[in-house]
Amino acid sequence: MYIGKSSELSRRAFVRRSAQLAAAGAASSYGLGLAGIAESAAFGATDEYKALVCVFLAGGNDHANTLIPYDPVNHSKYFAIRGHPDPATGQIVGFDRNQLLPTALVQDSHQVLTDDIRYALSPWMPRLKMRFDEGRLAPVLNVGTLEAPLTKAQYENGDKARFPRPQFLFSHNDQSSIWQSSQPEGARTGWGGRMSDLAQETNQNSMFTCINLAGASVFLNGETAVPYRITPSGPGMISGLRRNVQGSSTASRALDELIRSTDPNILKTDYTDISRRSIEYGAFINDALARSAVSTDFGSGNDLADQLSVVARLIASRNSLGVRRQVFYVTIKGFDSHSDLNAHQRLLGEVDYALDAFYRSTSEMGIANQVTLFTASDFGRTLSINGTGSDHGWGGHHFVLGGAVRGHRFYGTAPKVSLNSEDQVGRGRLLPSTSVDEYSATLAKWFGVAETELSSIQPNISRFANPDLGFMSNSNLH
Description:
The chain is an alpha/beta fold. It has one domain: Alkaline Phosphatase, subunit A. 34% of the residues lie in helices and 12% in strands. The longest helix is centred in the middle third of the chain and has 26 residues, at 266-291. It is globular.
Protein backbone atom coordinates (compact mmCIF):
# COMPACT_ATOMS: atom_id res chain seq x y z
CA MET A 1 0.00 0.00 0.00
CA TYR A 2 1.24 3.47 -0.87
CA ILE A 3 0.34 6.52 1.21
CA GLY A 4 0.97 9.99 -0.15
CA LYS A 5 1.72 13.07 1.93
CA SER A 6 -1.84 14.38 1.72
CA SER A 7 -1.42 16.97 4.46
CA GLU A 8 1.60 18.47 2.74
CA LEU A 9 -0.15 18.49 -0.64
CA SER A 10 -3.26 20.07 0.87
CA ARG A 11 -1.17 22.81 2.47
CA ARG A 12 0.64 23.41 -0.80
CA ALA A 13 -2.64 23.54 -2.74
CA PHE A 14 -4.10 26.01 -0.25
CA VAL A 15 -1.12 28.35 -0.53
CA ARG A 16 -1.18 28.18 -4.32
CA ARG A 17 -4.90 28.83 -4.55
CA SER A 18 -4.45 31.79 -2.22
CA ALA A 19 -1.75 33.17 -4.49
CA GLN A 20 -4.02 32.78 -7.52
CA LEU A 21 -6.87 34.62 -5.80
CA ALA A 22 -4.50 37.37 -4.74
CA ALA A 23 -3.24 37.70 -8.31
CA ALA A 24 -6.79 38.00 -9.63
CA GLY A 25 -7.42 40.95 -7.36
CA ALA A 26 -4.11 42.72 -7.74
CA ALA A 27 -3.34 43.66 -11.31
CA SER A 28 -0.23 45.50 -10.17
CA SER A 29 1.44 42.18 -9.39
CA TYR A 30 1.80 41.64 -13.12
CA GLY A 31 3.74 44.84 -13.70
CA LEU A 32 7.15 44.57 -15.26
CA GLY A 33 9.81 44.93 -12.60
CA LEU A 34 7.70 43.73 -9.64
CA ALA A 35 8.32 40.48 -7.84
CA GLY A 36 5.92 37.62 -8.58
CA ILE A 37 3.44 36.30 -6.04
CA ALA A 38 4.81 32.96 -4.81
CA GLU A 39 5.12 30.70 -1.81
CA SER A 40 7.34 30.79 1.22
CA ALA A 41 11.04 30.69 0.43
CA ALA A 42 12.31 27.38 -0.92
CA PHE A 43 15.61 28.58 -2.35
CA GLY A 44 16.96 30.75 0.44
CA ALA A 45 18.77 34.04 0.00
CA THR A 46 21.15 33.75 -2.92
CA ASP A 47 22.29 35.87 -5.79
CA GLU A 48 23.50 32.87 -7.78
CA TYR A 49 21.79 32.26 -11.12
CA LYS A 50 20.72 28.73 -12.08
CA ALA A 51 18.86 27.39 -15.10
CA LEU A 52 17.44 24.02 -16.12
CA VAL A 53 16.93 23.25 -19.81
CA CYS A 54 14.68 20.33 -20.81
CA VAL A 55 15.34 18.91 -24.29
CA PHE A 56 12.38 16.72 -25.25
CA LEU A 57 13.07 14.08 -27.92
CA ALA A 58 9.52 13.87 -29.27
CA GLY A 59 8.28 10.53 -30.55
CA GLY A 60 10.12 8.11 -28.26
CA ASN A 61 13.89 7.85 -28.57
CA ASP A 62 15.44 4.52 -29.51
CA HIS A 63 17.83 4.25 -26.57
CA ALA A 64 19.41 0.99 -27.77
CA ASN A 65 20.93 2.72 -30.80
CA THR A 66 21.80 5.83 -28.77
CA LEU A 67 23.78 4.16 -25.98
CA ILE A 68 24.98 0.88 -27.46
CA PRO A 69 26.52 -2.19 -25.77
CA TYR A 70 30.19 -2.17 -26.73
CA ASP A 71 32.03 -4.89 -24.79
CA PRO A 72 32.36 -8.11 -26.86
CA VAL A 73 29.93 -10.26 -24.87
CA ASN A 74 27.06 -7.79 -24.64
CA HIS A 75 27.63 -6.40 -28.11
CA SER A 76 27.24 -9.91 -29.55
CA LYS A 77 23.87 -10.20 -27.78
CA TYR A 78 22.82 -6.81 -29.14
CA PHE A 79 23.96 -7.64 -32.67
CA ALA A 80 22.22 -11.02 -32.61
CA ILE A 81 18.95 -9.10 -32.14
CA ARG A 82 19.62 -6.06 -34.31
CA GLY A 83 22.22 -7.20 -36.83
CA HIS A 84 20.04 -9.11 -39.29
CA PRO A 85 19.52 -7.50 -42.73
CA ASP A 86 15.96 -6.45 -43.49
CA PRO A 87 14.61 -8.85 -46.16
CA ALA A 88 13.09 -6.00 -48.17
CA THR A 89 15.97 -3.51 -48.14
CA GLY A 90 19.03 -5.38 -46.93
CA GLN A 91 19.49 -2.62 -44.32
CA ILE A 92 21.04 -3.54 -40.97
CA VAL A 93 19.69 -1.68 -37.94
CA GLY A 94 22.47 -2.67 -35.53
CA PHE A 95 26.01 -1.28 -35.42
CA ASP A 96 29.05 -3.42 -35.99
CA ARG A 97 31.46 -3.18 -33.08
CA ASN A 98 34.23 -1.56 -35.11
CA GLN A 99 31.86 1.32 -35.93
CA LEU A 100 31.65 2.10 -32.21
CA LEU A 101 35.34 2.40 -31.42
CA PRO A 102 35.51 6.24 -31.79
CA THR A 103 32.58 6.79 -29.40
CA ALA A 104 33.28 4.03 -26.85
CA LEU A 105 32.86 5.32 -23.29
CA VAL A 106 35.24 4.41 -20.48
CA GLN A 107 33.71 5.10 -17.08
CA ASP A 108 35.49 5.42 -13.75
CA SER A 109 37.52 2.27 -13.15
CA HIS A 110 35.67 1.35 -9.95
CA GLN A 111 32.23 1.37 -11.59
CA VAL A 112 30.96 -2.05 -12.69
CA LEU A 113 27.61 -2.24 -14.50
CA THR A 114 25.19 -5.15 -15.01
CA ASP A 115 26.90 -8.12 -16.72
CA ASP A 116 30.08 -6.00 -16.95
CA ILE A 117 28.46 -4.10 -19.79
CA ARG A 118 30.32 -1.22 -21.41
CA TYR A 119 28.65 1.30 -23.69
CA ALA A 120 29.44 3.41 -26.72
CA LEU A 121 27.49 6.40 -27.90
CA SER A 122 26.03 6.42 -31.39
CA PRO A 123 28.77 7.05 -33.96
CA TRP A 124 26.85 10.26 -34.75
CA MET A 125 27.57 11.65 -31.27
CA PRO A 126 31.34 12.29 -31.05
CA ARG A 127 30.94 15.67 -29.33
CA LEU A 128 28.98 14.23 -26.43
CA LYS A 129 31.57 11.46 -26.13
CA MET A 130 34.12 14.23 -25.55
CA ARG A 131 31.88 15.81 -22.87
CA PHE A 132 31.58 12.42 -21.15
CA ASP A 133 35.36 12.08 -21.14
CA GLU A 134 35.61 15.57 -19.61
CA GLY A 135 33.22 14.60 -16.81
CA ARG A 136 30.46 16.97 -17.94
CA LEU A 137 28.00 14.40 -19.36
CA ALA A 138 26.21 11.77 -17.28
CA PRO A 139 24.06 9.04 -18.87
CA VAL A 140 21.15 8.03 -16.61
CA LEU A 141 20.06 4.48 -17.39
CA ASN A 142 16.59 3.01 -17.83
CA VAL A 143 14.52 6.01 -16.76
CA GLY A 144 10.76 5.90 -17.18
CA THR A 145 7.33 6.74 -15.85
CA LEU A 146 6.41 4.92 -12.64
CA GLU A 147 3.95 5.52 -9.83
CA ALA A 148 5.90 3.25 -7.47
CA PRO A 149 8.71 0.70 -7.78
CA LEU A 150 7.51 -2.23 -9.88
CA THR A 151 8.89 -5.71 -10.59
CA LYS A 152 8.10 -7.81 -13.62
CA ALA A 153 6.06 -10.22 -11.48
CA GLN A 154 4.05 -7.32 -10.07
CA TYR A 155 3.52 -5.91 -13.56
CA GLU A 156 2.28 -9.27 -14.84
CA ASN A 157 0.07 -9.74 -11.77
CA GLY A 158 -2.29 -7.12 -13.19
CA ASP A 159 -3.59 -5.95 -9.79
CA LYS A 160 -3.20 -2.23 -10.42
CA ALA A 161 -4.60 -1.27 -7.01
CA ARG A 162 -1.79 -3.15 -5.23
CA PHE A 163 0.85 -2.55 -7.88
CA PRO A 164 0.10 0.81 -9.54
CA ARG A 165 1.61 1.76 -12.87
CA PRO A 166 1.03 4.64 -15.30
CA GLN A 167 -2.07 4.50 -17.46
CA PHE A 168 -1.96 3.80 -21.19
CA LEU A 169 1.61 2.58 -21.42
CA PHE A 170 3.21 2.81 -24.88
CA SER A 171 0.83 5.62 -25.96
CA HIS A 172 2.55 8.76 -27.27
CA ASN A 173 0.15 11.38 -25.92
CA ASP A 174 -0.35 9.74 -22.55
CA GLN A 175 3.26 8.88 -21.85
CA SER A 176 4.54 12.25 -23.07
CA SER A 177 2.14 13.99 -20.70
CA ILE A 178 2.93 11.65 -17.80
CA TRP A 179 6.69 12.09 -18.36
CA GLN A 180 6.28 15.86 -18.15
CA SER A 181 3.76 16.00 -15.31
CA SER A 182 4.13 12.74 -13.29
CA GLN A 183 0.33 12.72 -13.34
CA PRO A 184 -2.24 11.06 -15.64
CA GLU A 185 -2.69 12.47 -19.14
CA GLY A 186 -4.77 15.64 -18.99
CA ALA A 187 -2.87 17.02 -15.97
CA ARG A 188 -2.83 20.81 -15.68
CA THR A 189 0.70 21.19 -14.29
CA GLY A 190 4.12 19.76 -15.07
CA TRP A 191 7.12 19.31 -12.81
CA GLY A 192 8.99 22.11 -14.58
CA GLY A 193 6.06 24.41 -13.84
CA ARG A 194 5.85 23.28 -10.23
CA MET A 195 9.55 24.09 -9.80
CA SER A 196 8.83 27.47 -11.37
CA ASP A 197 6.04 28.05 -8.83
CA LEU A 198 8.66 27.87 -6.10
CA ALA A 199 11.30 29.79 -8.06
CA GLN A 200 9.21 32.83 -9.00
CA GLU A 201 9.86 34.68 -5.78
CA THR A 202 13.61 34.71 -6.43
CA ASN A 203 13.09 36.67 -9.66
CA GLN A 204 12.50 40.38 -9.97
CA ASN A 205 10.45 39.69 -13.12
CA SER A 206 8.60 36.46 -12.36
CA MET A 207 7.04 36.25 -15.83
CA PHE A 208 10.42 35.15 -17.23
CA THR A 209 10.85 32.25 -14.79
CA CYS A 210 9.77 29.57 -17.26
CA ILE A 211 10.19 29.98 -21.02
CA ASN A 212 8.83 27.66 -23.70
CA LEU A 213 10.39 27.56 -27.18
CA ALA A 214 8.57 24.45 -28.36
CA GLY A 215 4.82 25.05 -28.42
CA ALA A 216 2.08 23.28 -26.47
CA SER A 217 3.41 21.30 -23.51
CA VAL A 218 2.31 20.65 -19.94
CA PHE A 219 5.91 20.59 -18.63
CA LEU A 220 6.16 24.31 -17.77
CA ASN A 221 2.59 24.86 -16.56
CA GLY A 222 2.47 25.63 -12.84
CA GLU A 223 -0.25 26.51 -10.36
CA THR A 224 0.84 30.14 -10.47
CA ALA A 225 3.72 30.07 -12.98
CA VAL A 226 2.75 30.65 -16.61
CA PRO A 227 5.34 29.92 -19.31
CA TYR A 228 6.42 32.78 -21.53
CA ARG A 229 6.20 31.68 -25.16
CA ILE A 230 8.97 32.58 -27.59
CA THR A 231 10.16 31.17 -30.93
CA PRO A 232 13.65 31.02 -32.46
CA SER A 233 12.72 34.10 -34.46
CA GLY A 234 11.65 36.05 -31.36
CA PRO A 235 8.60 36.63 -29.13
CA GLY A 236 5.14 35.92 -30.45
CA MET A 237 3.46 39.25 -31.14
CA ILE A 238 -0.15 40.03 -32.03
CA SER A 239 -0.14 40.09 -35.84
CA GLY A 240 -2.39 43.15 -36.08
CA LEU A 241 0.18 45.15 -34.12
CA ARG A 242 3.15 44.01 -36.17
CA ARG A 243 1.54 45.15 -39.40
CA ASN A 244 -1.49 47.20 -40.36
CA VAL A 245 -4.88 45.50 -40.00
CA GLN A 246 -6.10 44.96 -43.57
CA GLY A 247 -3.70 47.69 -44.67
CA SER A 248 -5.10 50.29 -42.26
CA SER A 249 -2.85 51.98 -39.71
CA THR A 250 -5.99 53.49 -38.15
CA ALA A 251 -7.41 50.01 -37.56
CA SER A 252 -4.14 48.91 -35.96
CA ARG A 253 -4.17 51.88 -33.57
CA ALA A 254 -7.79 51.10 -32.68
CA LEU A 255 -6.85 47.48 -31.95
CA ASP A 256 -3.99 48.63 -29.73
CA GLU A 257 -6.30 50.99 -27.79
CA LEU A 258 -8.90 48.25 -27.44
CA ILE A 259 -6.35 45.78 -26.08
CA ARG A 260 -4.99 48.31 -23.59
CA SER A 261 -8.37 49.67 -22.44
CA THR A 262 -9.54 49.06 -18.87
CA ASP A 263 -12.87 47.73 -17.63
CA PRO A 264 -14.51 47.65 -14.19
CA ASN A 265 -15.09 43.89 -14.55
CA ILE A 266 -12.17 42.17 -12.82
CA LEU A 267 -12.03 39.27 -15.30
CA LYS A 268 -12.03 41.59 -18.31
CA THR A 269 -9.37 43.70 -16.65
CA ASP A 270 -7.29 40.60 -16.00
CA TYR A 271 -7.59 39.50 -19.65
CA THR A 272 -6.68 42.99 -20.83
CA ASP A 273 -3.67 42.98 -18.51
CA ILE A 274 -2.44 39.68 -19.97
CA SER A 275 -2.77 41.02 -23.53
CA ARG A 276 -1.04 44.28 -22.62
CA ARG A 277 1.83 42.37 -20.99
CA SER A 278 2.19 40.29 -24.13
CA ILE A 279 2.75 43.47 -26.15
CA GLU A 280 5.05 45.12 -23.62
CA TYR A 281 7.14 42.03 -22.86
CA GLY A 282 7.60 41.26 -26.55
CA ALA A 283 9.40 44.57 -27.03
CA PHE A 284 11.31 44.07 -23.77
CA ILE A 285 12.50 40.59 -24.79
CA ASN A 286 13.44 41.76 -28.28
CA ASP A 287 15.53 44.54 -26.78
CA ALA A 288 17.23 42.14 -24.35
CA LEU A 289 18.02 39.68 -27.15
CA ALA A 290 19.38 42.45 -29.34
CA ARG A 291 21.83 43.44 -26.59
CA SER A 292 22.83 39.92 -25.52
CA ALA A 293 26.36 38.88 -26.38
CA VAL A 294 26.78 35.21 -27.29
CA SER A 295 29.71 34.49 -29.58
CA THR A 296 29.16 30.73 -29.97
CA ASP A 297 28.43 29.54 -33.51
CA PHE A 298 25.22 27.46 -33.40
CA GLY A 299 25.32 26.83 -37.16
CA SER A 300 22.24 26.85 -39.35
CA GLY A 301 19.62 24.40 -40.52
CA ASN A 302 19.34 22.69 -37.13
CA ASP A 303 16.04 23.55 -35.42
CA LEU A 304 17.17 22.32 -32.00
CA ALA A 305 20.35 24.39 -32.23
CA ASP A 306 18.23 27.41 -33.22
CA GLN A 307 16.09 26.97 -30.09
CA LEU A 308 19.09 26.50 -27.83
CA SER A 309 20.75 29.55 -29.37
CA VAL A 310 17.81 31.65 -28.15
CA VAL A 311 18.01 29.99 -24.72
CA ALA A 312 21.71 30.94 -24.56
CA ARG A 313 20.94 34.54 -25.52
CA LEU A 314 18.19 34.75 -22.89
CA ILE A 315 20.58 33.39 -20.27
CA ALA A 316 23.13 35.98 -21.36
CA SER A 317 20.39 38.59 -20.75
CA ARG A 318 19.54 37.27 -17.28
CA ASN A 319 20.51 40.48 -15.48
CA SER A 320 18.46 42.76 -17.71
CA LEU A 321 15.55 40.29 -17.50
CA GLY A 322 15.77 40.36 -13.70
CA VAL A 323 15.95 36.60 -13.10
CA ARG A 324 17.98 34.29 -10.86
CA ARG A 325 16.14 31.02 -11.56
CA GLN A 326 14.82 29.86 -14.95
CA VAL A 327 13.42 26.68 -16.51
CA PHE A 328 13.42 26.28 -20.31
CA TYR A 329 11.70 23.78 -22.60
CA VAL A 330 12.85 22.95 -26.15
CA THR A 331 12.11 19.97 -28.39
CA ILE A 332 13.22 18.10 -31.48
CA LYS A 333 10.69 15.98 -33.38
CA GLY A 334 10.96 12.83 -35.48
CA PHE A 335 11.93 10.10 -32.99
CA ASP A 336 8.97 7.80 -33.74
CA SER A 337 11.27 5.45 -35.63
CA HIS A 338 9.03 2.54 -36.62
CA SER A 339 10.66 2.08 -40.01
CA ASP A 340 13.87 4.10 -40.34
CA LEU A 341 16.54 3.99 -37.68
CA ASN A 342 18.97 5.48 -40.18
CA ALA A 343 16.94 8.71 -39.97
CA HIS A 344 17.15 8.32 -36.19
CA GLN A 345 20.93 8.49 -36.40
CA ARG A 346 20.77 11.75 -38.35
CA LEU A 347 18.56 13.16 -35.60
CA LEU A 348 21.10 12.09 -32.99
CA GLY A 349 23.73 13.96 -35.01
CA GLU A 350 21.62 17.12 -34.72
CA VAL A 351 21.22 16.53 -30.97
CA ASP A 352 24.97 16.01 -30.61
CA TYR A 353 25.79 19.27 -32.42
CA ALA A 354 23.11 21.37 -30.69
CA LEU A 355 23.84 20.17 -27.13
CA ASP A 356 27.56 20.63 -27.57
CA ALA A 357 27.12 24.15 -28.99
CA PHE A 358 24.89 25.05 -26.04
CA TYR A 359 27.39 23.71 -23.52
CA ARG A 360 30.19 25.66 -25.22
CA SER A 361 28.07 28.82 -25.03
CA THR A 362 27.61 28.45 -21.27
CA SER A 363 31.35 27.83 -20.88
CA GLU A 364 32.17 30.92 -22.92
CA MET A 365 29.82 32.95 -20.70
CA GLY A 366 31.54 31.54 -17.61
CA ILE A 367 28.39 29.97 -16.19
CA ALA A 368 28.59 26.32 -17.27
CA ASN A 369 28.30 25.22 -13.64
CA GLN A 370 25.07 27.22 -13.26
CA VAL A 371 23.20 25.75 -16.25
CA THR A 372 22.13 22.12 -16.55
CA LEU A 373 20.60 20.58 -19.66
CA PHE A 374 18.81 17.23 -19.59
CA THR A 375 16.94 15.04 -22.07
CA ALA A 376 13.46 13.56 -21.87
CA SER A 377 11.23 11.60 -24.26
CA ASP A 378 7.81 9.94 -24.51
CA PHE A 379 9.36 6.53 -23.80
CA GLY A 380 12.16 4.24 -24.93
CA ARG A 381 11.67 1.65 -27.66
CA THR A 382 11.80 -2.12 -28.12
CA LEU A 383 15.16 -3.84 -28.45
CA SER A 384 13.55 -6.14 -31.02
CA ILE A 385 13.25 -4.56 -34.44
CA ASN A 386 10.35 -4.01 -36.79
CA GLY A 387 11.98 -4.33 -40.20
CA THR A 388 14.25 -1.28 -40.14
CA GLY A 389 12.75 0.36 -37.07
CA SER A 390 11.59 -0.31 -33.52
CA ASP A 391 8.28 -0.05 -31.67
CA HIS A 392 7.00 1.81 -28.62
CA GLY A 393 8.68 0.86 -25.36
CA TRP A 394 8.83 2.11 -21.76
CA GLY A 395 12.15 2.83 -20.03
CA GLY A 396 15.04 4.49 -21.84
CA HIS A 397 18.43 6.14 -21.32
CA HIS A 398 18.88 9.90 -20.90
CA PHE A 399 21.66 12.45 -20.65
CA VAL A 400 22.45 15.28 -18.24
CA LEU A 401 24.98 17.89 -19.40
CA GLY A 402 26.57 20.81 -17.56
CA GLY A 403 29.43 22.09 -15.49
CA ALA A 404 27.87 20.87 -12.23
CA VAL A 405 27.26 17.35 -13.57
CA ARG A 406 29.25 14.51 -12.03
CA GLY A 407 30.06 12.89 -15.34
CA HIS A 408 32.46 10.21 -16.57
CA ARG A 409 30.21 7.57 -15.01
CA PHE A 410 26.71 6.10 -15.38
CA TYR A 411 23.75 6.46 -13.03
CA GLY A 412 20.91 4.05 -12.42
CA THR A 413 20.90 0.34 -13.25
CA ALA A 414 22.04 -0.93 -16.64
CA PRO A 415 19.48 -3.31 -18.18
CA LYS A 416 20.39 -6.73 -19.49
CA VAL A 417 20.71 -7.12 -23.24
CA SER A 418 17.79 -9.48 -23.62
CA LEU A 419 14.25 -9.94 -24.87
CA ASN A 420 13.03 -11.97 -21.88
CA SER A 421 14.88 -10.91 -18.72
CA GLU A 422 13.32 -9.71 -15.47
CA ASP A 423 13.97 -6.06 -16.29
CA GLN A 424 11.80 -5.91 -19.41
CA VAL A 425 8.15 -6.64 -20.23
CA GLY A 426 8.32 -8.19 -23.68
CA ARG A 427 10.23 -7.59 -26.94
CA GLY A 428 12.96 -5.80 -25.02
CA ARG A 429 10.65 -3.10 -23.60
CA LEU A 430 12.52 -1.95 -20.51
CA LEU A 431 10.74 -1.97 -17.17
CA PRO A 432 12.09 1.29 -15.71
CA SER A 433 14.53 0.86 -12.84
CA THR A 434 14.81 4.63 -12.28
CA SER A 435 11.67 6.72 -12.06
CA VAL A 436 11.14 10.10 -13.67
CA ASP A 437 10.40 11.21 -10.09
CA GLU A 438 13.95 10.37 -8.96
CA TYR A 439 15.46 11.90 -12.10
CA SER A 440 13.54 15.17 -11.68
CA ALA A 441 13.99 15.34 -7.89
CA THR A 442 17.78 15.17 -8.36
CA LEU A 443 17.58 18.10 -10.77
CA ALA A 444 15.21 19.98 -8.46
CA LYS A 445 17.56 19.68 -5.48
CA TRP A 446 20.43 21.11 -7.51
CA PHE A 447 18.11 23.89 -8.71
CA GLY A 448 17.51 24.86 -5.08
CA VAL A 449 14.30 23.08 -4.08
CA ALA A 450 14.48 22.10 -0.41
CA GLU A 451 14.16 18.45 0.58
CA THR A 452 10.93 19.27 2.38
CA GLU A 453 9.48 20.74 -0.83
CA LEU A 454 10.23 17.79 -3.14
CA SER A 455 6.77 16.29 -2.64
CA SER A 456 5.26 19.45 -4.15
CA ILE A 457 7.34 18.82 -7.29
CA GLN A 458 6.86 15.04 -7.37
CA PRO A 459 3.99 13.85 -5.15
CA ASN A 460 5.12 10.20 -5.39
CA ILE A 461 8.77 10.77 -4.52
CA SER A 462 8.44 9.26 -1.02
CA ARG A 463 7.70 5.89 -2.64
CA PHE A 464 11.17 5.69 -4.18
CA ALA A 465 14.50 4.93 -2.54
CA ASN A 466 16.65 7.55 -4.32
CA PRO A 467 15.35 11.13 -4.24
CA ASP A 468 18.92 12.09 -5.18
CA LEU A 469 20.61 9.90 -7.80
CA GLY A 470 23.91 11.71 -7.25
CA PHE A 471 24.62 12.94 -10.77
CA MET A 472 24.62 16.63 -9.73
CA SER A 473 27.21 18.41 -7.62
CA ASN A 474 25.69 20.80 -5.10
CA SER A 475 28.98 22.63 -4.65
CA ASN A 476 29.79 25.71 -6.71
CA LEU A 477 32.34 24.67 -9.31
CA HIS A 478 34.32 27.50 -10.89
